[in-house]
């Protein structure tokens, strides 16, 4: 996002927040003291809104400080940007309410009805969420129209560098205008870039190229230490947006200060134990009611398979879950009995001839996945997580895909972040699937799971990319 564009919308956010705080306290006051206007509640003549109006400057200041502290004026990017923004709003409102409660405790004359504060907080949460999502949608729309975008260049031409360019082209709402690459070699291009690849020149001329192209954002991938130092220094001196990716570093890192010496640390655990407990509880809360509600449908499908094709109605297959443990993965059988007589099949394309008539329907609608709710109940799987692989494919990927085993930090899932970003296509792209899986693990939250579940239901209803 262009710096002037960012400043304008930051000021716009502050102004709307000030108005929303006033409206929220008016609503809180009305809900507590003035509902008798509508024939509800009792008259409270001693409660005067002017008392709140006199200290509104303090209230505004305390809440704006809380909003800034919790990151409400940051600009979030990426697929979970909205989730992060809603989370920052929630924490900002809670912190603002606590600040005012503490202030009213220190200064007894300060009007601080707890009910007014709670009602105002709830009102603010709703109004701020609507406001921020509307602003985010407006910003995304303007970026798609080419307004306020940073002119971006990619230094390097590796597969990862090309995927960065692909994302910039695919998601203009992130606020970047793809201009081309700076690279010393002609790369083997990934399919989406075959018509979009532009080589602006070699690395030795990067400063001239960036000035000529009026570049304001730089993405780089796996440069030598010398090249990285030169590029970083140039970007810092010229105030350019700079982001660097290195395959040598896990995403699961943190920065640490040792007496003014910056150090990079690696976390020993990708997924904290408290997160495992929360995730397990959320799995049970979802799985138990879903099993009860869907049991008549599962019985109907079970009988339908038994009556229309020979063989077992339940298909069991060994899969790999958390920490490399094997388990029996359950599905309603959709394939013919001899569909894998020549060995396991990796490709998910052209499988219609291998399915039964009923099997094609339940596979197309994802109803064949329902028995996996029992895997979740037994603790072998989660509702959301990386899709568990078969041992034979897992061993193959371990040899050819770096860091493949890191996806085993959590239990396999019925659906996942990789699946809703290309459910069928990613089967033959393990490296890209791994990146989605690790992104999910590193950014896990209950809100993220809810978003994935919602998108999964949308994909299923649209019958999108199931095979």
UniProtKB/TrEMBL annotation:
Record keyword Transmembrane helix present: yes
Gene3D superfamilies: NAD(P)-binding Rossmann-like Domain (3.40.50.720)
Cellular localization per UniProt: Membrane
Transmembrane segments: 12-31, 55-76, 88-110, 116-142, 284-305
Pfam family membership, one: Bac_transf
Membrane disposition: Multi-pass membrane protein
GO molecular function (one): phosphotransferase activity, for other substituted phosphate groups
Main location: membrane
Keyword entries, A-Z: Membrane, Transferase, Transmembrane, Transmembrane helix
Annotated GO CC locations: membrane
Signal peptide: none
Positions of the Bacterial sugar transferase domain: 279-461
Family: Belongs to the bacterial sugar transferase family.
NCBIfam families attached to this UniProt entry: EPS_sugtrans
Name of this protein: Undecaprenyl-phosphate glucose phosphotransferase
């Amino acid at each position: 996002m262009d710096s002037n564009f960012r400043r304008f919308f930051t000021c716009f956010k502050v102004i709307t927040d000030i108005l929303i705080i006033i409206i929220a306290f008016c609503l809180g006051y009305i809900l507590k003291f003035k509902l008798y206007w509508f024939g509800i509640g009792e008259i409270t003549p001693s409660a005067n809104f002017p008392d709140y109006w006199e200290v509104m400057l303090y209230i505004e200041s305390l809440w704006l400080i809380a909003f800034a502290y919790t990151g409400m004026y940051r600009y979030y990017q990426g697929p979970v940007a909205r989730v992060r923004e809603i989370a920052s709003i929630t924490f900002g409102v809670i912190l603002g309410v606590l600040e005012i409660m503490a202030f009213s405790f220190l200064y007894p004359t300060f009007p601080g009805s707890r009910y007014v504060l709670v009602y105002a907080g709830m009102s603010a949460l709703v109004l701020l969420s609507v406001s921020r999502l509307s602003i985010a949608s407006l910003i995304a729309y303007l970026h798609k129209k080419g307004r306020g975008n940073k002119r971006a260049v990619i230094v390097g031409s590796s597969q990862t560098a090309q995927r960065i360019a692909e994302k910039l082209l695919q998601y203009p709402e992130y606020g970047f205008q793809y201009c081309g690459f700076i690279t010393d070699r002609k790369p083997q291009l990934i399919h989406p870039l075959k018509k979009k690849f532009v080589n602006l020149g070699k690395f030795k001329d990067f400063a001239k190229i960036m000035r000529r192209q009026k570049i304001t954002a730089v993405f780089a991938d796996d440069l030598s230490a010398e090249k990285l130092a030169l590029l970083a220094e140039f970007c810092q001196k010229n105030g350019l947006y700079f982001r660097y990716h290195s395959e040598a570093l896990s995403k699961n890192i943190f920065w640490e200060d040792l007496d003014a010496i910056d150090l990079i640390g690696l976390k020993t655990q990708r997924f904290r134990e408290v997160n495992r407990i929360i995730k397990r509880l959320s799995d049970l809360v979802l799985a138990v009611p879903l099993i009860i509600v869907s049991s008549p449908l599962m019985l109907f499908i079970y009988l339908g398979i038994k009556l229309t094709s020979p063989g077992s109605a339940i298909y069991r297959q060994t899969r790999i879950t958390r920490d490399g443990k094997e388990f029996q993965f359950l599905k309603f059988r959709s394939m013919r009995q001899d569909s894998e007589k020549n060995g396991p099949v990796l490709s998910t394309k052209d499988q219609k001839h291998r399915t039964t008539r009923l099997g094609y329907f339940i596979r197309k609608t994802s109803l064949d996945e329902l028995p996996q709710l029992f895997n979740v109940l037994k603790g072998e799987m989660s509702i959301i997580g990386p899709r568990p692989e078969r041992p034979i494919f897992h061993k193959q990927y371990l040899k050819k895909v770096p860091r493949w085993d890191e996806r085993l930090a959590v239990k396999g899932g019925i659906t996942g972040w990789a699946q809703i970003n290309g459910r069928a296509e990613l089967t033959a792209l393990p490296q890209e699937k791994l990146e989605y899986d690790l992104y999910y693990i590193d950014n896990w939250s209950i809100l993220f799971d809810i978003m994935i579940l919602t998108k999964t239901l949308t994909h299923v209803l649209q019958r999108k990319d199931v095979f």
